[in-house]
Design a protein that fits this description.
- By secondary structure, this protein is of the alpha+beta class.
- It has 3 helices and 4 strands, in the order E-H-E-H-E-E-H.
- About 40% of the residues lie in helices and about 20% in strands.
- A 4-stranded mixed beta sheet has the order 2-1-3-4, sandwiched between helices.
- Strand 1 (about 5), helix 1 and strand 2 form a beta-alpha-beta unit.
- The chain is globular.
- It starts with a strand and ends in a 7-residue tail after the last helix.
- About 20% of the residues are buried.
- The mean pLDDT is about 85.
Length: about 80
């Protein structure tokens, strides 16, 4: 499944999601909304973090994204 994570350097919840995704061996395209505003605009991103799936569905917010990641891929390793 193709996933795109829209994030920003200044967004602390985004950093937590990126750390969580790093514990899994799955490809996720990470797009910084400040560096690629045209991609964010085209995807309709209004809030970060936002995780877009290949089927067109989207999750917004760190907690829903992390819960979905754990549901799909398992708990993974703890990153501290």
């Amino acid at each position: 499944m193709t996933m795109k994570l829209f994030t920003a350097e200044w967004c602390h919840p985004c950093q937590a999601v990126k750390m969580k995704l790093a514990t899994y061996d799955h490809a996720v395209e990470i797009i910084d909304v400040d560096k690629s505003p045209e991609l964010a605009r085209a995807a309709g991103v209004r809030s970060v973090p936002a995780l877009y799936f290949g089927d067109g569905s989207v999750l917004v917010g760190a907690v829903p994204i992390m819960k979905e990641i754990e549901k799909v891929y398992g708990k993974g390793e703890s990153v501290e």
